């Protein structure tokens, strides 16, 4: 009886490359870039055309500030799969992180044009964050609101981004609304979120809430940039 042609064995090169790429991504997320790079190199040795491995390795190199290597990996991934939404999202984030925020938006938009993209909320969130960095509050708000609308996991980062947008607009009640939602979903809360909460409550005149968030910032993140800004009194 012939073998089932729909079954993929682990001896299949593409399948093995995919496994190593997934392991590389997991190690990267766990804060172990060396192990991540080992698995990604193995993936590309097995299947040099597996563009997802190049894309993930680009993110790892970017995190290590090896920007030339990251750019080379992203270029290879895009040359093999110019419309892959995950590749475009990853490259867009790399551009944003390297001071090319406006240029990054085209890649997020390209990712979002794929109707089969499984996590479009990521691209909306990333685009919104990049636009927020350059002060384009209108467009940032549009992207971040869409991320919140479609996300299936709470869109914590998008909610923090919206809290920042509304804080900068002076709409403190809306800022607090989105930030409170985000804080309820986070354990522990990030230094970024706590520092924003301190400033929102300070502007609203809620001394007790301000003090509570400041205490958390001090106890959880005493060496963070956010806590140093608090100590300097740089509330704006």
TrEMBL record:
PANTHER family: CELL DIVISION CYCLE 16,23,27 (PTHR12558), CELL DIVISION CYCLE PROTEIN 27 HOMOLOG (PTHR12558:SF13). The keyword Acetylation does not apply. TPR repeats lie at residues 17-50, 51-84, 121-154. Keywords: TPR repeat. The keyword DNA-binding does not apply. This is Type IV pilus biogenesis/stability protein PilW. It comes from Azonexus hydrophilus. InterPro entries: Pilus_4_PilW, TPR-like_helical_dom_sf, TPR_rpt.
């Amino acid at each position: 009886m012939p073998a089932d042609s729909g079954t993929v064995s682990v001896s299949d090169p593409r399948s093995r490359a995919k496994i190593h790429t997934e392991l590389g991504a997991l190690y990267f997320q766990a804060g172990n870039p060396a192990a991540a790079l080992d698995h990604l190199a193995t993936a590309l040795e097995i299947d040099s055309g597996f563009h997802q491995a190049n894309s993930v390795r680009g993110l790892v190199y970017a995190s290590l500030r090896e920007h030339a290597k990251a750019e080379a990996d992203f270029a290879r991934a895009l040359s093999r799969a110019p419309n892959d939404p995950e590749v475009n999202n990853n490259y867009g984030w790399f551009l944003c992180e390297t001071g090319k925020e406006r240029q990054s938006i085209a890649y997020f938009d390209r990712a979002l044009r794929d109707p089969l993209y499984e996590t479009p909320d990521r691209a909306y969130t990333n685009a919104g964050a990049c636009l927020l960095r350059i002060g384009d509050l209108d467009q940032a708000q549009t992207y971040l609101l869409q991320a919140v609308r479609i996300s299936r996991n709470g869109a914590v980062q998008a909610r923090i981004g919206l809290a920042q947008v509304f804080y900068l607009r002076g709409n403190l009640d809306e800022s607090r609304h989105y930030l409170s939602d985000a804080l309820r979903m986070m354990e522990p809360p990030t230094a970024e979120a706590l520092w924003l909460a301190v400033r929102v409550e300070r502007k609203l005149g809620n001394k007790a809430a301000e003090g509570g968030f400041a205490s958390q910032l001090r106890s959880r993140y005493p060496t963070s940039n956010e806590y140093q800004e608090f100590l300097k009194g740089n509330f704006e």
